[in-house]
Amino acid sequence: MTYLFNQPSAFASELIEGFVAANADKVRQVSGGVVRSTRSQPGTVAVVIGGGSGHYPAFAGLVGQGLAHGAAMGNLFASPSAQQIYNVARAAENGAGVLLTFGNYAGDVLHFGQACERLKAEGIPCEIVTVTDDISSARPEEIEKRRGVAGDLTVFKVASAAAEAGLSLDEVTAMARQANARTRSLGVAFSGCTLPGAEQPLFEVAKGTMALGMGIHGEPGISDTEVPRADALAELFVERLLQELPPGVTEAKGQRCAVILNGLGSVKYEELFVVYRRIAQLLQEHGIEAVEPDVGEFVTSFNMAGASLTLMWLDADLETYWRAPCNTPAYRKGSVIKAEPLSAAEREVVVQEDIPPASDAAKRSARCVLALLETVAQTINDNAQELGRIDAVAGDGDHGIGMARGANGAVEKAREVARRDAGAGTLLCRAADAWADKAGGTSGALWGVALNALGTALGDELAPDAERVALGVTHAREGIMHFGKAKPGDKTMVDVLVPFSDTLNQQVAQGASLVDAWLAAAAVAQQSAQDTAQLLPKMGRARPLAEKSLGTPDAGAISLALIVEAVGKLLQSNQGGAA
Amino acid sequence: MTYLFNQPSAFASELIEGFVAANADKVRQVSGGVVRSTRSQPGTVAVVIGGGSGHYPAFAGLVGQGLAHGAAMGNLFASPSAQQIYNVARAAENGAGVLLTFGNYAGDVLHFGQACERLKAEGIPCEIVTVTDDISSARPEEIEKRRGVAGDLTVFKVASAAAEAGLSLDEVTAMARQANARTRSLGVAFSGCTLPGAEQPLFEVAKGTMALGMGIHGEPGISDTEVPRADALAELFVERLLQELPPGVTEAKGQRCAVILNGLGSVKYEELFVVYRRIAQLLQEHGIEAVEPDVGEFVTSFNMAGASLTLMWLDADLETYWRAPCNTPAYRKGSVIKAEPLSAAEREVVVQEDIPPASDAAKRSARCVLALLETVAQTINDNAQELGRIDAVAGDGDHGIGMARGANGAVEKAREVARRDAGAGTLLCRAADAWADKAGGTSGALWGVALNALGTALGDELAPDAERVALGVTHAREGIMHFGKAKPGDKTMVDVLVPFSDTLNQQVAQGASLVDAWLAAAAVAQQSAQDTAQLLPKMGRARPLAEKSLGTPDAGAISLALIVEAVGKLLQSNQGGAA
């Protein structure tokens, strides 16, 4: 869908106005399109690009210092007229002739050709280079019939940087031809697009299908398949492009390539990065160095879903011009801030994870804390599904999964630091960090806070005693209320933690053993968890809440009650042992 | 739809790998996210941003010199954990403390808060600024409850540039608060989005509906309406944002604003420019100067369709930091190429349209040519629908509309230059250019070529005679075949033009009057046009051809035959007069 337009027939001219209003520091409008609004170096070749509108950043977004001097902007998906191209070229012309360069489509060839003849008839030297990078659009023997797609950018960039460097029209033309001869692209599509105000899509791709080689106006591709996994698409792209090395390149290994992974409109950046991950691996495996790769949207077709991979096989000149600075509305290279890359050693900044020294008593206690964590994780794993079911009533249903990830992560970390002779305090703090990290979400963070507070109270010097544990629980309760911003009565885990902590502290103050005190407190916690069964918003990340039933207890309160109960049982069965 | 992924559960971590592979010159991966791969100025504050993944360029795309020092990257639409944030902050930390800044969501507030406490506990000064720009998410009296959307960028940019300038942590924090206090956004949504591998959309918007104020994770908005026209959306955005001037701004007039028109994923650049056109007009009407406006994708939600407008009301400091250079994967300011803006006079380069002097005879002939063009336009207008119908069989059905646009444009231009005393040759050439310009498409260009050739043959000195007209038609035919690359037998207008031109020239050579020769040639043209009725591909812009019926004549051939017939009739009825 295209959503935003006024009169569909005015769309192409209105978009130019808005584009120029937003980018007046770089471009200005002339009859037929846009040219730079900044002074170009006198006596240099002007590079004029163009084509139909609907492919932004192509073509107007690529006008500016270091890239094109002007862009002729046709109607949606339609070539600009010769008159438009002529007007833009006259306004862009800079004393050393004009290179017209554009994707190879019949209408564009016709109109740019006619504009070229007119410029020459008026004494302005003019040359043409058509871009023919799309390997799916004709066989290698008919390369001149191929369409131009995202390889437009590599050719425009090289030609423009050569012009900026002061090369003559013949030399700039030769560089553009060289760039085109060494540029290859392959595209795929998953959906078509609908032009502003149209009732029907201009073209479509069957749901679940990938059209291999489909063009950016829906030109038919080579074949249709199921949508592959991201890695499989990366492999397809690289394999096909490597099957057709350009003239002068005998083997892929050792080559350097400019790389563009282009999204057509509604395949988004995150997806492109997942695909690029595998492309980068494959290029490395083939011994190809990716030079200033670009991953993003460079030649689009409204909200068409699709992507293409472009490789320009570099030589020394092409690399120089590919890397040269430029500053256009949609494409910029070079930085005014000079910044050195970090050295390899500096990149290896690792957050310190030294294990502080601990007393023998604290090391023994650490074994006990590890056993407790294992019991907690087991309890959570056993109840994860039920916790998820409870959470789904009022939240997003991931409480069980998140708690299980957190508890299992905590156990894994605790085992590691126990092997490295950590004390009980350090072990619990490290496990707490791992819990928060693996669990994610709000409850993960709160468990991280709670276990960290408890671990800090235990310390690495003495064996934990009842007072120390009770104090730690108090600190955990304070941390959770501080960070979670929940108060008693909000129907969260706080409604369990507060009576648990109160009872534990009272019992300990009255001289009860840790085990007895803990068991008494756990029983109170059980009751409190059931009492949370009321309709109240859950604290947490803002998101649409599913409708809630009255009477379902809070999942976070339930899991806390389960955990203190399990810990109590283990303490009881170990009564003769440590802790 | 999200199309490209491997294991959905691995999506968030794979996208980081791909992102870092594509941008290794600017960022490097650390546990929990990314930090700069270039050396920051020692002794400056580190600005660490972050949030859930799925919003690229937010957040990782904004890390680099002049912008953020690091970004903690959570799972899709989920806050990073405190551990992740802590790790990123430790790796980014640069000797002068850390500012943590992020959009105001409960999960992020919790985790960033916890990371902040941990950093402070380790002796690293740390402050927090949450971004609360979304005016639809809470009333002005509860501004601290508002969500952060695209205003993230203005706050991050100002804070980071202040850090780059060497300000202390307290000063950087104050600047970030000032930026947030003066930043306001309003967003709308037209569709939801589907996370990788999910079978159902995460949230939806009813078809044809605009959800005003919907958040970037589908948080409920204020109201639902029909999708408005682009201009009406611009008016809504500006009106609502101007209703809530920030503290310290008493009237809009005379203010300077940073402006971001943000697309959420599948509302594309061209649509945004159409909306921005009206926004720019409105800001100007209100006396507001837009400073370095940005139109594009800055905070997305996969392929969610929607847009938002952000204004940051500038003061001197905010403007300095908004304009400061930066160089990140997705956001760059400043250019290494120094380029002066053109002066106002230089911007007024207008392609010359002087009318060359003409003989009185040629001026009289021009009136006759104008009358002929008017007849041609009338004929085309009368037959436009039928020409469209014929064209729809083999082409895209726009031949009639295009020809009518061209012919009417030609008449308009011919009238203008006739008033300025143009000769017949100049009048026809200018009309030809207007035809090609207004008609667009292949046939428009070919008619431009043909009429230009004819006009050149007529010239501005002598009254046209039969020989000159016949020669002009020959040149027109050559021009069309040269540019159109069609040969006789390709079943195009060439199949009509060639026998027409042959007959005309033969008749004239045999001494026939122009009228008689033209009528004879027109009759041949009629017959030839009917003969094009065979199944053959049409020349033209590459696009999927509709299925064709055998037996429909070519629309371009038909319109040519109609035109020469109409011209013949007018010549006949004027036989006593000029030409």
From TrEMBL, chains A, B:
GO annotation, cellular component aspect: cytosol
Alphabetical keyword list: ATP-binding, Carbohydrate metabolism, Kinase, Nucleotide-binding, Transferase
One Pfam family per UniProt: Dak1
Every DhaK domain range: 7-331
Residues covered by the DhaL domain: 367-569
Classification via SMART domains: Dak2
Lineage: superkingdom: Bacteria
Pathway assigned in UniProt: Carbohydrate metabolism
UniProt key word Cell inner membrane: no
BP GO annotations: carbohydrate utilization; cellular response to carbohydrate stimulus; glycerol catabolic process
MF terms in GO: ATP binding; carbohydrate binding; carbohydrate kinase activity; glycerone kinase activity
Protein known as: D-erythrulose kinase
